[in-house]
Amino acid sequence: MYxxxxxxxxxxxxxSKMPERxxxxxxxxxxxxxxxxxxxxxxxxxxxNSTPNLITWSAVIGGFSQNGFDKETIELLVRMQEAxxxxxxxxxxxxLPASARLKNLKIGQELHGYITRRGFxxxxxxxxxxxxxxxxxxEMVRAQKIFSNFSVRNTVSVNTMxxxxxxxxxxxxxxxxxxQMEAKDIVSWxxxxxxxxxxxxxxEALSLFQDLQMQEGIERIDxxxxxxxxxxxxxIGSLTKxxxxxSYAIARGFNSNPFVGGAxxxxxxxxxxxxAAKRAFDEVTERDTPAWNxxxxxYARSNQIxxxxxxxxxxxxxxxxxxxxxxNGIxxxxxxxGHHELAFRxxxxxxxxxxxxxxxxxxxxxxxxxxxxxxxxxxxxxxxMIRCGYELDVYIGAALVDMYxxxxxxxxxxxAFYRIxxxxxxxxxxxxxxxxxxxxxxxxxxxxxxxxxxxxxPDEVTFLSVLSSCVHAGSVETGQEFFSxxxxxxxxxxxxxxxxxVDLLSRAGKLTDAYELMRRIPIQPDSVTWGALLGGCVIAGxxxxxxxxxKKLIELEPENTGNYILLANLYAHKGRWRDLARMRQMIxxxxxxxxxxxxxxxxxxxxxxxxxxxxxxxxxxxxYGTLKNLAIHMKTVI
Length: 638
Description:
Layout: H1 8-17, H2 23-35, H3 39-48, H4 54-66, H5 70-82, H6 89-102, H7 105-118, H8 124-136, H9 140-149, H10 155-167, H11 171-180, H12 186-198, H13 202-214, H14 223-236, H15 239-251, H16 258-270, H17 274-282, H18 289-301, H19 305-317, H20 324-336, H21 340-352, H22 359-371, H23 375-388, H24 394-406, H25 410-418, H26 425-437, H27 441-454, H28 460-473, H29 476-488, H30 495-507, H31 511-520, H32 527-540, H33 543-556, H34 561-573, H35 577-589, E1 598-603, E2 606-611, H36 620-637
Antiparallel strand pairs: 1-2
Helix pairs in contact: 1-2, 2-3, 2-4, 3-4, 4-5, 4-6, 5-6, 6-7, 6-8, 7-8, 8-9, 8-10, 9-10, 10-11, 10-12, 11-12, 12-13, 12-14, 13-14, 14-15, 14-16, 15-16, 16-17, 16-18, 17-18, 18-19, 18-20, 20-21, 20-22, 21-22, 22-23, 22-24, 24-25, 24-26, 25-26, 26-27, 26-28, 27-28, 28-29, 28-30, ...
């Protein structure tokens, strides 16, 4: 009695006064300790008991499992069997959740075999636990087989399958199962809404939430519902809907909940409203690490770098230590705002600490390396990925392809691509883009045709890359063929696709066709498209279309010196010196200057950036002295 009521001291006193202690009394005190979180005291009682039985072992194992000691739970199961006791259905129902949380498929399969041999497959608790093991390990085919053949169709088992399908990206199967449920509880609704959010189907999540609000007989919407809905609002940038949810949360007292508060902070942070984010954060009564992470990431994303150290100190003052997700949020904010050096420095600090960068960290840092075209730093990150076993991941592989391509090494980009275990459209697009980036048009066209033969369905990115390849290859007919294919694959051309076609036709001298295509574009051509046409006019010496394109460009970008210079070059090419003089005078009157060229080199982990005629570098005297010596040497050789 005392044990079940949580009065362990009274229970122990009663036990100590008992003249004879039988197995029932020992099991009662062990169960009391285990169920009240005192698992190691329960284990000590078991070890001091000269005659423990199956109930004693099951109580201790259940306590360890319920309190999250998953590895210890498995170890205790082994010890129990070594002591001569075989687990029953109750023991297995405790061990299976521990195996599921560990995502240890091997142990799960061994337990499955034992369950089948001993005839426990008819026990609903054991079967649900086994389904949970397979779904957490991503083995949804096996989970479905057990669910269909052995599971009792109740709300718990169906909810487990819905979560499993959502976690593994099979959202349509999850929704089909959800729709088949006759009696849905709030967990069912929450699982489906959260599944939509996890699979980036944010509008569907909000639509399902509206359906939930119309339901009768469903328990009240809880903090998990609101947290998922607020996350959806944050991702689609719907501040209006998010504020409505915030009001809903305040009316029902959920605004002080850490899960809801964290989601509110994330939503306001993504909308760059840090004041509202801080207010939402301050309303949380018991602030946890995820809530702090959301706030810190928001400040990093809003480029409030100077505030981050203060927030980290406040977090520590709350008794919480920054974790991997804290640093990931800061690094992501640095990269988003162009602070690539700071991002890489923080990554190095993480490596020197006890925190091990995860696959998400690797993806962010690779993006930083790509944007500064730093192949040496990219190689450092790549080496770390190899040691951690991340490079075979399809998304990391695609990021590596992108990094090497932008750093000038198509050779390494191809090596990274062919090391991907299970390539998908994202990785295919990465290599296709790399070919276009390096001007390898013919290779890009061949690769695209191979993609179609294998069965990939191209998207916007695919077509943009292959059309760029056609531009570099000068393949007009092939480009027109691929542009026509977009309709077949239900891909609507964007301005970038039209610009590629205009550029392709213009470079080939088909200026009239290019201009006619521009007139048919359903959206207003931008400066890049007109620039492509003007570039073609300069090459072909077409004054008439060149002046039309230049006039449009000057309307769109009146301060862009390059547009005036292109038109001046066209006049010079055709010998129209009076018009050339007029353009030069216009540039002079407007006090316009051409933007200087920029280049950079990487030397010993340091990036050196130079502009044309630049003398701001700390070693400029040494550099110009060397250039002068080289010039003298070349003249001497000649």
